[in-house]
Amino acid sequence: xxxxxxKHASVAxxxxxxGLIMTYIPYIRHVLPYVDRTAExxxxxxxxxxxxxxxxxxxNKLLELFFNHHxxxxxxxxxxxxxxxxxxxxxxxxxxxxxxFKPDGYTFDEIEMLKTVTYPELxxxxxxxxxxxxxxxKAHGS
Length: 142
What we know:
By secondary structure, this protein is mainly α. The protein has helices at residues 2-10, 14-31, 37-46, 53-57, 61-68, 81-96, 108-132.
């Protein structure tokens, strides 16, 4: 779970990253001692980017548009695909630590379900689609 959280948090825009970590510190502290290492390695092995994702993402105009959050006409270049994820990612934070959508707040199980949908299932799918469409730059060997 530790590597999963750090890898996924690293691709969240900086503005959301602090909120994400602060929101889930109690959850992280609770879960980390009980990590199933076999399951963790299997999930990490399925991820399309692994440790070179930052290198792959360099000079990626679609991701630059996505993470800059500008709602100008150039964002149309993202063809709606990243706009969908932007909507999910920004509203995930509101869902997780506010009562805006639900007056009584969300239960731990509901937050866990929402987190599962967005991390790790949704993000790798989006990244894999971008990779297959050649929107991510290949890693350069040092």
